[in-house]
Amino acid sequence: MSNDAAPGAAAAAAGLTGTRTSRAAEAAGRGFFNFSLGLLILAVLWWLGGYLIARNPETQSFSGFGLVQTLQSFPELWNQGKLQKAIAASMYRLGGGLGIAIAIGIPIGIIMGRSKRFRDLSNSAFQFLRMISPLSWMPIAVFVFAAWDDSIIFLIAIASVWPVMFSTAAGLAKVDPAWFKVARNLGATPVQMLTQIILPAISFDIFTGIRLALGVAWVVLVPAELLGVTSGLGYAIKDARETLSYDHLTAMVLTIGIIGYTLDTLCALLIKRFSWHRGDA
After folding, report:
1. Residue 270: how many CB atoms within 10 A of its CB?
2. Which are the contacts of 208, defined by CB distance < 8 A and separation ≥ 6?
3. Are 209 and 105 in contact (CB under 8 A)?
């Protein structure tokens, strides 16, 4: 009986694995189809709008906004080095501001999640600061920081720290207190408590907060670069507008969308890969 059952169990397991693989492949194929179809619809609408603009004598001067003209401008911007320089400057500021937000937001979020008294005392102040528009800090940042880069990094940090902080605190508040009691009874040190219990338990919430912070930072970055600086994607849009290079303007707008979508997708993959929930992002 046992010899006959073993091949049957193996076949059932193989069939289950094959079913899961086929379902995953089907889901991936469906996702790729929806992704491609959505972009195709957007491209067709963009092309149609550009075509109508070019056909109308009153709006013909704005034909550079069209899809074909925009795509044709990418090689020119690349050969001139404008595209690479703009992306490098913006990514430097984004990385600096987001890195500061993560370095500040995670520790404070952990303290908020672990200490009810600290959470009660700080919540009103943090909520008040969170509701201040990040760009309204611009005049203060200009006075405090000598360089425009530092001012923009400050604006990005103060805009993106709140999602990281509150997401971390909310995740830690959901952790079963019994975990910490067991760890203390087993003689766990504070460092072991942090690395072995807290961070693994709230990794999903931390990465979710970082993903939200990235979206906020990316939105703040471009308008911040419209003022003062002479580099970055925001400045490139301003420069293209002043020189009436509409195809360059829309190319930079498209670049912003591509980079932002790529960064958000990477964050979503990190959430699925490193969170113990393995939940949907």
Report:
1. 16
2. 167, 271, 281
3. yes
pLDDT digits (tens, 9 = 90+) for 18-72: 576 777 677 777 878 888 888 889 889 888 888 788 888 777 777 778 888 888 8
Residue with tokens 């059932």: 12
Residue 45 is encoded by which pair of tokens? 């609408």
Give the model's confidence band at 212: pLDDT under 50 very low, under 70 low, under 90 confident, else very high.
Answer: very high
Burial class (CB in 10 A: 0-12, 13-18, 19+), 100: middle
Written as six digits, the tokens of 184 are 């203390």
Token pair for residue 70? 């925009």
Q: Is 253 exposed, middle or buried (0-12, 13-18, 19+ CB in 10 A)?
A: middle
250, amino acid identity: T
* Distance from C-alpha of 123 to C-alpha of 101, rounded to nearest angstrom: 17
